[in-house]
Amino acid sequence: MKGVNFMVIWLCIAVTLQILLLYKIPVIPRDCNPRHLTLIRKTSVIIINDSSKEHVVRLLKSIFHQEVQPFEILIVGDKETLPRLKKEMKSHVFQVEAPPVGIGWKPKNWACWHGAKSATGDYILFIHSSTWFEPGGMLRIMEAYQMQFGKGILTISPYKRLTDWINLFSSAFSIFLFSLTKIARSHKGTSRYGGFEECFICRRDDYFKLGGHYEARKELLPGFALTQSFLSVHQKATSWSGKYVISNNEEYAGWKQLFRHWNKSAGEYIEKAGFSTLSLITLWLLSSILFFIYCLAAIPSQPILSIIGFFIYIWSILLILKKAGSYHLMDLIGFPIHLIMFSFVFLKSFAGKVLAFAFQTKEKPYVTAKEKEKKMD
After folding, report:
1. Which of 34, 99, 120, 240 is the most buried (most CB within 10 A)?
2. pLDDT tens across 169-227, in order?
3. How confident is the model at residue 277, as a pLDDT?
4. What is the pLDDT of residue 113?
5. Does the CA dihedral 135-138-141-147 come out positive or negative?
6. What would the pLDDT profile of 176-188 be if each residue is shown by its tens digit?
7. Helix 303-321 and helix 275-297: axis angle, to 10°?
8. Which segments in the chain show pLDDT lower than 50?
9. Which fold does the domain 34-255 belong to in CATH?
10. Residue 319 burial (CB count, 10 A)
């Protein structure tokens, strides 16, 4: 009976921490005002291509099926990544060949920077080629952006379409991703730390005033860094779930690639997040694992109570993940395994951050405004 009591205690703690971390994942309303169609007509869509031609074609088709077309569509890449398009090339679709990647730049940031310099619309919307727009998705983005009066930055995390069983193991990572931006604790998607990477929109003038991807040239998470730049000058920054807006289906070649993605992304997000949020995530992981241990231990004496407790926990997780991807109850039966696998990656990255912080003594050199302007040219 003592084990059952501990099971109930850890269940209550875990669910409470879930509420603290993920109060509400904001979803853009499905009903939109047609007057915001004018924003689309002023927008340059910049497609960053580092995947296959099929992905670019799929994204282009999803744009062509929107109610109103954007001002222009720019497909950015180098000689190797620019796809050969014939049928998909229309009067407002252009290909931008970026020069060889500059020293100190991440390839993706380099492509974004040159895409933005080629854009002529009042607004620029960056989107990764691995995603696609849902019907009416572009209008919903403009609806959400109009909520902040067409200013600041708005980022979106794609809605995950689970087409492969290995994608199910990213469920714990999805929770981690939303909890770190702190958007899930606000009512209107207001970000306190940073935003998402696959899709974001801002005014072109504001983008260049803040240095755009030039300032984030070394960052693995440029969307996160750009959001912080907008927040630093007191401009609004919001982040949203991509449900009803944009989707993707992450494709992993195997376990090695999955763990590499977790390790790389988790390490970068942890490096930028606050210790209070990281502490909450650590406590949530610990309490969840302890709950599963006591739940398993209580099966011989109280099997029905253990099963009920397990499904209460899984149901609470499902309520969160339904806004992040096409998860179902049966998909999360193996969630304890997903959680334990991700916990190893998280704790490794968290320990690395603590050690790096403890031994970090090097100061960043001061750069004047004139020097910045020269480098940006």
Report:
1. 240
2. 888 888 888 887 665 444 455 556 668 889 999 999 999 999 999 999 998 889 888 98
3. 78
4. 96
5. negative
6. 888 876 654 444 5
7. 150
8. 184-187, 361-377
9. Spore Coat Polysaccharide Biosynthesis Protein SpsA; Chain A (3.90.550)
10. 12
Instruction: Give the whole-angstrom CA distance, residue 273 versus residue 290.
Output: 25
Q: Among residues 19, 49, 45, 67, which one has the least CA distance to residue 118? A: 45
Which amino acid belongs to residue 114?
A: H
How many angstroms separate the Cα of 333 from the Cα of each of 58, 238, 282, 336, 355?
Answer: 32, 33, 22, 8, 35
| CA–CA distance, 182 with 186 (Å, rounded to integer) | 7
SS3 of the chain: CHHHHHHHHHHHHHHHHHHHHCCCCCECCCCCCHHHHHHHHCEEEEEECCCCHHHHHHHHHHHHCCCCCCCEEEEEECCCCCCCCCCCCCCCEEEEECCCCCCCCCHHHHHHHHHHHHCCCCEEEEEECCEEECCCHHHHHHHHHHHCCCCCEEEEECEECCCCHHHHHHHHHHHHHHHHHCHHHCCCCECCCCCCCCEEEEEHHHHHHCCHHHHCCCCCCHHHHHHHHHHHCCCCEEEEECCCCEEECCCCCCHHHHHHHHHHHHHHHHHHCCHHHHHHHHHHHHHHHHHHHHHHHCCCCCHHHHHHHHHHHHHHHHHHHCCCECCCHHHHCCHHHHHHHHHHHHHHHHHHHHHHHHHCCCCCCCCCHHHHHHHHC
Burial of 117 (0-12, 13-18, 19+ CB in 10 A): middle
How crowded is the C-beta side of 229, counted as CA atoms within 13 Å? Answer: 21
**303 vs 59: CA distance, rounded Å:** 49
Amino acid at 168: L
Maximal C-alpha separation, the chain: 73
Using the structure block, give the residue that is written with the tokens 């890449």. 77
In degrees and rounded to multiples of 5, residue 152 shows phi and psi of 75, -155
Q: How far apart are alpha carbons 329 and 214 in whole angstroms?
A: 43
Q: What angle do CA 376, 236, 206 make, to 5 degrees?
A: 25
Which tokens in the block code for residue 114?
């040159």
